[in-house]
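Practice problem 4.
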């Protein structure tokens, strides 16, 4: 993925989210805030007020999930993980403001910089912090976990469901009259991606995946599930903060590690040395087992990006321009080849 494509894709997502905010003066009156300035920053608003600077975020999940996320953050703090933001409670102790059918919350704004995963020092810091996050997550009260947030043991079925969708989308593309460039590229790569998906499922079923799930059930931990560079802020006094728990879930910890590796591979031409560097950094803080390394192989092999952009086009029908869709498909279809070469080298070196 080129940097331009990566940035454009994330900006589109942020614009979609920000468009749902209702920044009415009445909302801020409810909060007891006099607004001096409002600036969009990714998918939140930084607001400057008479009481200081805050991050304003719209809640995108239901009440059960809200309670889960709040419980996750409190659990981390109780276990000594202080690298999270404090939510600004109302006078009655509640955290959320309801306005015009939507819920919002405030956190104190921290001046600092986003981490840069291209910087090896930042990447090392982020990876060490992730291992500490996973340690602090252990012992969580699983009665607080909504079914939608429990991914333990669900990888095989998720793979199967996505394979079915890929076949369905292939059928749609074949039947389509007046195919666009997107359709032609999709049909060029879909059989190769389906082959990878089936192989990933077979490897997963024959891997130590179930043993890892059993261990995770004993540990009772959770994962961040969106450990992107922009969700890690280093304040000007040097402290690291993990932001945005919107996608937090219960799953095996190697899911987070694998996602961190893939995020970096997309920007570095699938550099095997960088992938091994991430594993080494994490392993120093919390040893990674051979079973976990084996489960990374089907995780890497499944064509997640190809499935996702295809789904956005054929099923979700997101309101993006043809050029945007085409750029993304061109980039993500190329992962099929790069990913294969990467996995072959990865298997040799682990």
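Answer key:
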């Amino acid at each position: 993925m080129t940097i331009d494509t990566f940035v454009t894709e994330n900006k589109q997502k942020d614009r979609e989210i920000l468009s749902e905010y209702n920044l009415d003066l009445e909302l801020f009156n409810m909060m007891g805030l006099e607004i001096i300035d409002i600036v969009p920053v990714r998918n939140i608003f930084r607001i400057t007020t008479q009481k200081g600077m805050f991050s304003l975020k719209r809640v995108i999940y239901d009440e059960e999930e809200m309670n889960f996320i709040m419980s996750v953050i409190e659990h981390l703090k109780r276990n000594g993980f202080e690298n999270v933001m404090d939510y600004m409670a109302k006078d009655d102790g509640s955290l959320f403001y309801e306005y015009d059918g939507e819920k919002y919350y405030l956190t104190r704004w921290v001046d600092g910089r986003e981490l840069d995963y291209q910087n090896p020092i930042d990447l090392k810091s982020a990876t060490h912090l992730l291992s500490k996050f996973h340690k602090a997550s252990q012992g969580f009260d699983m009665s607080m976990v909504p079914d939608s947030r429990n991914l333990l043991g669900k990888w095989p079925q998720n793979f199967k469901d996505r394979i079915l969708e890929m076949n369905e989308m292939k059928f749609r593309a074949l039947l389509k009259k007046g195919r666009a460039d997107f359709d032609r590229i999709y049909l060029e790569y879909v059989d190769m991606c389906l082959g990878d998906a089936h192989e990933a499922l077979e490897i997963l079923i024959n891997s130590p995946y179930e043993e890892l799930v059993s261990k995770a059930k004993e540990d009772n931990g959770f994962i961040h599930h969106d450990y992107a560079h922009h969700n890690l802020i280093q304040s000007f006094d040097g402290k690291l903060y993990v932001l945005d728990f919107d996608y937090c879930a219960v799953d095996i910890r190697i899911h987070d590690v694998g996602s961190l590796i893939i995020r970096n591979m997309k920007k570095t031409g699938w550099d095997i040395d960088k992938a091994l560097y991430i594993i080494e950094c994490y392993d120093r803080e919390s040893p990674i087992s051979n079973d976990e390394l084996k489960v990374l192989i089907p995780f890497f092999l499944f064509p997640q990006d190809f499935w996702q952009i295809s789904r956005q086009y054929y099923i979700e029908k997101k309101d993006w321009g043809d050029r945007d869709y085409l750029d993304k498909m061109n980039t993500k279809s190329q992962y099929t080849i790069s990913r294969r070469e990467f996995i072959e080298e990865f298997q040799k070196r682990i």
